[in-house]
Records
---
Amino acid sequence: MNERVSDSAGVTPMMAQYLEIKSAHPDCLLFYRMGDFYELFFEDAEVASRALGITLTRRGRHLGDDIPMCGVPVHAAGDYLERLIRQGHRVAVCEQVEDPAEARRRGSKAVVRREVVRLVTAGTLTEDTLLDARRHNYLAAVARVRAADELAVAWADISTGDLGVTRTEADALATELARLEPREILVADSLLSEPSLRSALDAAGAVITPLPPSHFDSTAGDRRLRETFAVRTLDAYGEFGRAETAALGALLGYITVTQAGSLPALRPPVREHRGDTMLIDAATRANLELEKTLHGERRGSLLATIDRTVTGAGGRLLAERLSSPLTDPARIGDRLDAVGYLLELRDQRRRLREMLAGVPDLERALARLTVGRGGPRDLAAIRDGLTQARDLAGILAGEPGLLAMPAEIAAVREAASRDDGGLAAALRAALADELPLLARDGGFVRPGHSGELDDQRRLRDDSRKVIAGLQARYAEQTGLRSLKVRHNNVLGYFVELPAQHAERLMSPPNDAVFFHRQTLANAMRFSTAELAELEAKIAASAGRAVAIELEVFGQLVERVREAAGLITSVARALATLDVYAALAELAEEAEYVRPKVDDSLAFRIVRGRHPVVEQALRRSGEGGFIPNDCDLTADDPDDGGGGRRLWLLTGPNMAGKSTFLRQNALIAILAQAGSYVPAAAAHIGIVDRLFSRVGAADDLARGRSTFMVEMVETATILHQAGPRSLVILDEIGRGTATFDGLSIAWASIEHLHEVNRCRALFATHFHELTALAERLPQLFNATMRVKEWQGEVVFLHEVTPGAADRSYGIQVARLAGLPAAVVARAGEVLKALEQDERSTGPRNIADDLPLFAAARPHNPLATARDGSAIERRLAEILPDELTPREALEVLYELKALVADG
């Protein structure tokens, strides 16, 4: 069917169809299917051509104007979709839902029916090409019910089926969103006018999708949830507040709309309680580089450093656990038991990891099948995953070791070995060994599965033999050896022979069998009734074969849908096993130890190490990491004991203060995530909130200087930290005048000690603060060890009790490569400043010191009053100003002086 844009000012039927569909999706770029291309028109075409860097053309006219147009090939649409989504666009995919032949039967001007089959947004992706296999792709919804004074966040990953919700507070919204890192956030447009909520939403860095407030109705949300999960009440899943129900309802409604009515296989909602996990705000996550570095890269982060998982699902689960460390010692202990079990069973772990490496991503295959975007390879992934799960369960059950199997491993084994009702066997029987990407390509059903399909295939596949036999018979019958039976998409099958022999077919008796079809320059084409009948049978058999295969595919998908709960359970078990085996592998490889985690206020690390820095040193071959102890264990804060829960750390830059601060925070995160830790021993009382103020950066987008950002983050800590919190602070007050900064740091330490009463590490260059240890009983002075040798400073990277006497800033400046004249001048200024500080009265230092440009480099020999002739001569020499020849002459001169002396 030839569909085209009109060359006149009128509206063609095709353009009328396009405009109608576009009017229903005004906020989306419309991918309008035309044959092998998705076409975009008007403003959509202009936007897409700029975003994708593709050519913008013009074809036809509409209302007197040329129509802008561009297109992308269907087979490469995934790459273009990814680029558009990453730039924040939404795309409506409009497919042909009718065979063009059917449209032709309705009349010459009939247009092929088209419908939008999905809306592609940042939070609703399912294709592997658009997703990171090791990262969740969350869609979040934020709902507020003013009457109940409730605020909630719900989230879903439709590519894996995860669904969760939690109640939060306005000041904690940014923390929740930082934990989830959603790609897209749904919110009532009325909430965007509230500055505090808008600030938290903007800070998440996700695409914000405003919806009418009616989408967040809690009553409608409750009804939608019950319908989705086919239950009469939600009590089995938890007691949901109105805001939580509203957020979940908006989420499900949006997913249904974007998937054109096909809801993926979502698990029942998990209600998370505030306090179940360690709260880590966005600034702390960024400072500690948990899942990505400050440059936005995964490499160099804590997650990349510890990740030894071999499956995508395992990688996602590890990231999930690292972003949400637990606060329940019993659950943490269960996880550590599982890691320890697999750590001991080295051979079993090796076999498990080898098998896990071949396990497909069951969650994402299931999601694609349930929303109608799956193919034969996704069915094969379900088949292989279920089969391998039972094999893995067999390995776990077959280990006769002396260790008792932990509850976590036993649960994994039970889930992996569940009876699938013959699903895997049915898929093995139905699917061929080699599978196409798309079901419509056919050829994926195993021979012997369907007798009717086998018959149609034989007719289709034997057509070449039949055609070859027919050609031989026609050639013998006519005596024309040059006669050939050929095929093209326009004429179908036809008889072709050179033009000089055509007359014989048009003469009796051949003219009764052959009838003319087409004349070419050097050949003529004919057909026969027998050939036309055979062509109809072949075409019908090919079409019928594909139709039968699609029927089989639909039946298999339906069986998978019915087993969605089991498949999800198996997939989660395999991911969990991968995480435990990976953490055991890490513990053995990197010599990590099991931490003791309990409800106390202990924080005692023996020979702790920074996991990222340690691994980087190993890769570079620059030597081993210097471990350090840290003991923030305090007595009961209510009994007036003299614990040392607040450390004041002094020492020069480059000595390792920031590394020491970060490593202790990372050890706490690893321990509560259920991992072994880089230390010789560790005892950690549950940390409910972790705060970090390390490093300096401005926030120009919101008009904040580096110092303002520092003060905002410090204010957050001082307002929110409690006795169970862990706080690490670095260089508070250094962004302003000396006395202002010292005063702020001084008052902050007092507040942490007396009001917050938390476990804290406070690094500073203000040595005056060390005097606070005399009157704050739980403040402990520690310093980074350094040594000086012939004017050079050597950093030992060791933490010892005591206080630094100075910061060695000039020595660090020398190491950084500052010009020698600048370093020398800085030394003179420092000496004068120190003398001024010790003097009884103020004096103008600038008057006493000449500009460094006018001063000669310092030479101790030049100050000698009664030196020898050699010393006097040396004092006169300026080595930097000598040419090589002059230097040689001076050397001979000095040698002569030595000989004379």
---
Amino acid sequence: MPDPVIDPARVQFGVGQAVPRQEDPILLRGQGRYTDDLALPGQARCVMVRSPYAHGLIRGIATETAREMPGVLGIFTGADVAAYGGLKAGFLFNNRDGTPINNVARPVLPQDKVRFVGDPVAFVVAETLAQAKDAAEMVELDIEPLDAVTEPAAALAPGAPLVFDSVPANTVLDFHFGDTEKVAAAFAAAAHRVSLEIRNSRVVVCPMEPRSAMGEFDPASGRYTLHAQTQGVFGVRNQIAGILNVPKEQLRVLTGNVGGSFGMKYGPFPEYVCVLHAAKVLGRPVKWTDERTGAFLSDPHGRDNDVTAELALDAEGRFLAVRLTALSNMGAYLTTAAPAMSTGNFARNVQSNYATPLIEVATRCVLTNVTPIGAYRGAGRPEGNYFMERLIEAASLETGIPAAELRRRNHVRPDQLPCEMASGSVYDSGEYSAVLAQAMAEADWDGFEARKADSARRGLLRGRGLGNFLECTGAPMQEMGGIRFNEDGTVTIVTGTLDFGQGHWTAFAQVLHQQLGVPFDRIRLVQGDSDQLIAGAGTGGSKSLMASGAAIIEASELVVEKGKAAAAHVLEAAAVDIEFAAGRFSIAGTDRGVGIMELAETLRRAPDLPADIPRTLDVSHVFDQAPMAYPNGCHVAEVEIDPETGHVQVVRYHAVNDFGVVVNPLLVRGQAHGGIAQGIGQAIMEHVVYSPEGQLLSGSFTDYALPRASDLPSFGLGSHPVPASTNPLGAKGCGEAGCAGSLPAVMNAILDALGAYGITHIDMPAQPETVWAAIQAARGARDKARHS
């Protein structure tokens, strides 16, 4: 039966439609497959033994008693895995003097000393999880404690403990961007200068699904298989194969459903190498799943920077230069993305959407005896925007120019685009002042004073804050766009990004449906099998739709080329006379044609085809790369503060975003909601606290607060899309933008409310004790001044 002709104007599942996520019914029925759901025949269980000290010399690890316990199959220490390579950073930068970063390797298990509480030093494999836990408790660690250092400023001090003896002053990178002399001259000539000391607080990532891994080894082929959560199996396969010292083809990485990552699961981890090693030695699958306590200690944390931010302005409030001088806490080891966040991403994103002619960023990346830092939703992009937005509020107080007007006055205008910025980026599209105006209107900016008066009648302070943002997404790198027409009548997309909650299956299917007219409900997606990929840069930097979407579009064009040749044979016409539209190949000027699905089936069943006719419509294509895109927007938050307790409540929230072409508005809203919630969490409650000895004091949900539904208002979301010209879809990326807008919007609102007491700056998180203490100090200063 021929395929029906699809009217593009009435496509239900095409680009721009709010199609529900296809995976939701599967997940809601409990049919998802997460790593811990795996149960392979003969599998053993693994438990890690972690250091209780932040810093110490390993004098010995006694395993004799533990080895004799029931069910124990093996206990492994650093000596057993010493032949493997180390884990290193994957994003590399040079020091200001041109020398490369000190990319010190993290051992799979250390033999010399431990470097943070939670550092894995051994692992136990047993028949059952309970047996492995019991035996792990009997492994005796002889560790000679050393002085620890938890803050980068202290780590730089003369005589400070060295995390690695090979890293002088604990500094792995002295990064510099910009022209120091020109920036200094701009500040010297400025009519106005503002400076803020800003703490960008450390957060725990807290995905719903803790890390987990299953290792297998086939002695016949010498091949490893790793089941683990990743943000891209292709890259993780390449990295772990390098650590194992085996060819990439000898490792297969499989990822099923992933219960959240936010950047944290981007690269390899020691535990993944451990289960692969044990599987080879023991000849059976070995499974490890972390628990929440271990996750708090050992999952990479996010953020953690101390920054001096400075802005120079002329007499009319035009920005002349912005300067960031930062100390970035790397923790005890370098993770895959660690050096990128506070260096290149600061430099690219502090520009925001303002025509600031000069930028200087100087960052020292410092090792300390705390949990390593990794990527966390935005990975330097929200931070860069946050610094600029806080500076603008300070500049408004300095100059007397309203903050909204300062933003408008310095926006890059549409008639200036495309425009090469001081950051090195080339902005291609955007209407930044229009977005600001729309956000203020939709948030009822002019009605604020009445709401403030109402709050005051209830004894509460009310403040409002703007969070303008523009972020530079990750540049789409090589990405696979495979399309397979299957025997069961389905069509499979194969690509190397990876869904860990974003809804890729639905969005990618919409793009393919739009391009080829393939029935939406017959489209399947493969992302999590490295054996099926020929390229894949993974998911990160809000680039997945731009990368995989472009790959799907280009692959679809190749399908059409093959289809025209095949349809010409089937319809007995010349290939030049074949047209394709709405899922159908037809002879120009006639009503004779064949649908794409029918053609795929015809080719599959054809017994003999001429040599020049394709046997299948399948393609395996690699999209090369594209420039980054520049999503932008404006968030408006309102808060109420109880001055007697310091409690902050976000009571109104509205955002207008320019995400370019929106493939699925429903998915975009979900991404915005999640990012805003995480930004609010960091702004007012999430707080990682270490003791001076390096013990994590906020190591559970008893001591570490995440935002609940009751902590969040309803979000108003508007859209002002201006298509990007940097990718075939015109999309700009939306996954991290919620954080980029919410951090400054909420903190600016808090400072606006506290302005009644003359308070001009506090750092995140604005927890009740912090806000209350600031109010009490301001009241005391006011009373003292009154009586002096």
